[in-house]
Amino acid sequence: MLTRPICAAYLRGKLPTRDPFCFGHEFVADVVAVGDEVAHFVPGNRVIVSFLIACGTCRRCLQGYPAACLTVPSKSAYGFGIFGDWGGAACDLIRVPYASTMMALLPDGISVTDAASAGDNLSDAFRCVADGLEEEPGAPVLIVAGGGGAPSISLYAAALAMSLGSEQVDYMDSDRERLTIAEAIGANPIEAKSPPKRHGSYWITADTSGHPSGDWLATALNSTAPYGRCTSCGIYHGVTPVPLGAMYRQGVRFTIGWANIQSLMPRVLNLLAAKAVALSKIHNVVPWDDAIAALKDPPPKLIFVRNHEAAAGRQ
Ligand SMILES: [Zn+2]
Hints:
Elements: H1 6-11, E1 27-30, E2 46-49, H2 59-62, H3 99-102, E3 103-105, H4 112-115, H5 121-135, E4 141-146, H6 151-163, E5 169-173, H7 176-184, E6 188-191, E7 202-207, H8 215-222, E8 224-232, H9 244-250, E9 252-256, H10 261-274, E10 284-287, H11 291-295, E11 302-305, H12 308-313
Parallel strand pairs: 4-5, 4-7, 5-6, 7-8, 8-9, 10-11
Antiparallel strand pairs: 1-2, 2-3
Helix pairs in contact: 5-6, 5-10
The structure holds zinc ion.
């Protein structure tokens, strides 16, 4: 179970919530019991679970948009106190509704820690780069992490783009720690203390800053090649300026919103099974009992492992 920044932000009182609630929205777990309607899973399976709750059978789910599921209330999710009483992963047992489509088996050969974030951030990062690289194999990618609103998604997107064959992955950030990790995974680090108006021209750009000024977002949008793809994973609140005039003149395919995790997880797991992705350089793994201490000064991505020895033995 993870995560930073969400858990850390809650602990610091920086996100709105109702008290009390159980946090933890990304997790790998062992199945201990299944209901009568659950297909494909049995007790003993190790599974990855989508953070967003969706039925898997309504019109929107079948169209590939579980984030717009018509059966459950909008924004139903684990681990976010304001999004319903679905529970969180920082607990002993968690109930998974619609389990037949909410879960995926952990494939052989993929470690628990590599898969730990597939239920949200890793899949979110995947959607930033995968379709663009399928469309134009080898295309250069620009990740605009800026102030680091979604630090792990930034680094995941860079690592995934490398594995998916991008010939150049440029990673722009103001944070030295993340720039060092980006370089370690093979990306080209670009240190920027403030957002440039534009940085080159890329078929694929991603904004993961979530900065309320919109300035880093504008850098990503203005750096997108004509009719290229720009995806934003930053969480914005209120009104954020967007350079629509430049986007119109340039032609930008812009995507923003919750990632449709159930549609993405199989593709992410297929990639992890087929190719090396430098996730271990991004992850900081700590035992469950050390979680609270680690969250006080979190690195870009924390993973907490319960029964650490047993989990390690299954990697
Ligand atoms: Zn649905």
